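Below is a typical protein record.
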Amino acid sequence: MNTPLSPAAPDAASAAPVILFDKVEKTYGARRGATPVTALSDISLAVPEGAILGVIGRSGAGKSTLIRLVNGLEKPTSGRVVVDGVDITALDEKALRGARRSIGMIFQHFNLLARRTAYDNVALPLEIAGVPAREIKARVEPLLDLVGLADKRDRYPAELSGGQKQRVGIARALATRPRVLLSDEATSALDPETTQQILALLRKVNAELKLTVLLITHEMAVIKNVADQVAVIDGGRIVERGTTYEVFAHPRHSTTRTFLADLTSASLPPYVADRLKSEPEPGSEAVVRIVFTGDHATDPVLSRVSRLLSVDINIIQAQVDEIAGAPFGVIVVSVPGDAATLSAVTSAVARLNLSSEVLGYV
């Protein structure tokens, strides 16, 4: 079962948290006499070392504010943000500049300097830090190779595709050898194929450099493809948190279910949704969503239940996918809606260690 993550949560304790939000609140406008607007409320969240944690939320949910607190671009109204053992909220500007060297950041719109080549854009943070030219070369060239742009080192941003620009942005974020990599909607401006390439690169960077990655997105497909863990933010609060597989298989909050609807085929076809009622009527059928996980995702469960109970089961919608490297299936069926048959079907499904949910009646 997925549960809200706090600094002391057991599933965060397998590795020391590299990023820690401790009872963080962020309110805008309170000091200017305006009506206060709460962007974040009671955020306690830990990101273990080496994890990829995805934070997903709608526009205005607070996810951009959350990520800006990590590198000190915003200060919390109360609470602490600790990165690699350093309380970011307690630092003055000079100390904060030093702390940011351990925090890499990649952006939605790349933020590359048009008059600098790919090599020079990657070298920029090292130049600002006063790193000698010889050492800069020794760092930048391997990074360009890592992101697959060794042959584009002398190209300017105008000569690069969107995916290539984002690869430059990732290499630049890695130039200072950070412990933490922040991704702010890094794939939102990219086409689907390029998005997959960038996500594969993020997984590679995470694995090879042992980086802890915090990414924010409004796309559940991004979470599915790259994140180990997910936190769902709504109205400035973390409303659900767990491993990616747990949250996909057993979403508990309505916001999570909304995000998952299209991705997991949990949304009903219009011809069913338009007729769906909350209570049964004589002769109606129950619409049931069944989740197949792990080894059961490819089992012939419906045929077993149908034979066992001598019940006709009609498939409305079905999908088998892979979540976090494990098989995952969702199937929506209709069965006779009388209480006895419906109870027998859901009980049989439960005995097979699968979860089911009655969506309504048609």
User: Anything to note?
Assistant: The mean pLDDT is 88. The radius of gyration is 24 Å. The chain is about 35% helix and 30% strand. The longest helix spans residues 192-209.
